[in-house]
Amino acid sequence: MTVPEQRLPRSDRPPLVEKVAIVTGASSGIGRALALRLASMGYRVGLIARRGDRLEELAREIDSVGGTAFAAVADVGDRAALHRAFRDLEDAIGPTDVLVANAGFGTPTWLDPVNIDDVENTFRVNLMGVVYAIEAALPGMLARRRGQIVAVSSLAGDRGLPGEAAYCASKAAVNVYLQSLRADLRGRGIRVTTVCPGFVQTEITPLDATLTPFIISADDAARRIARLIDRRRGGVHRFPRRMALLMGIVNRLPDFVLCRLIGHS
Ligand SMILES: NC(=O)c1ccc[n+]([C@@H]2O[C@H](COP(=O)([O-])OP(=O)(O)OC[C@H]3O[C@@H](n4cnc5c(N)ncnc54)[C@H](OP(=O)(O)O)[C@@H]3O)[C@@H](O)[C@H]2O)c1
Questions:
Q1: C-beta of residue 93 within 8 angstroms of C-beta of residue 74
Q2: Which fold has domain 20-261?
Q3: Residues belonging to the active site
Q4: Structural domain boundaries in the chain
Q5: Are the C-beta atoms of residues 31 and 45 closer than 8 Å to each other?
Q6: Residues of the chain with pLDDT under 50
Q7: Residue nearest ligand 1's atom 46 by CA
Q8: pTM of model > 0.85
Q9: Residue 13: its pLDDT value, please?
Q10: Is the alpha carbon torsion for 190, 196, 201, 204 positive or negative?
Q11: What DSSP state is assigned to residue 7?
Q12: Closest Cα to atom 16, ligand 1: which residue?
């Protein structure tokens, strides 16, 4: 679904010398917490998502504590709309130094019939949304020979989990896409950072705590990602550590054991 683009009220603050970060999926969860954190670190922040009211509220919150944030509404899976959002934001706050391609969602994958619309939508948003954002930000970074590309993937990208074929495959594709990019961009001043969280308490997390071992808060996830940005750390980062270790074991289990463990018939 393509949501009409609209501009949101902007701050009157003049362009500053701080760095610029654009965060997709900034209207809730990890993206929202990270945008707040980056603003508190002195970044001018560009906010992208579909829910303009949420972005507007966040931009005001950042403004009220002395930061600078601008918002642009776009569906990340709509290439033209996303590119327009980048242009609008860069006109307002300057060229992107840090891109955080965070927007994403999960939905179960059915077998009979296959819920093909959901599958296509998952790939469009979780994979192409990342690729389109990189397409928008990368030329400027290459020209300036500096920048950082961060994608929020998932520990679920390391193995196809039962019932989650599209989500896991979309995140696996993000991981491998960034792996290639990291090699392509060696020596060109651009860091490529893949972030693979375990469970994070947000709107997409199941409420049943037994299904979400070692869950962390969105603020905690944002703090970890902000640290990777602050230190310009490239590479792949899995957290929290205990969940990453658990998934390391789970990934080696035969399918029948895994299905029994998670009660999947
Ligand atoms: N929560 C977890 O346990 C967990 C674990 C591992 C990885 N992740 C990943 O973390 C990222 C953030 O998710 P979250 O947990 O913070 O969930 P969330 O609170 O639901 O946030 C998702 C964000 O993505 C945006 N979004 C979704 N579809 C979009 C679209 N088509 N176009 C533009 N924006 C879109 C949403 O904004 P609008 O609805 O306003 O567009 C929202 O801002 C996702 O990539 C997710 O896969 C989450």
A1: no
A2: Rossmann fold (3.40.50)
A3: 167
A4: 20-261
A5: no
A6: 1-17
A7: 104
A8: yes
A9: 44
A10: positive
A11: B
A12: 29
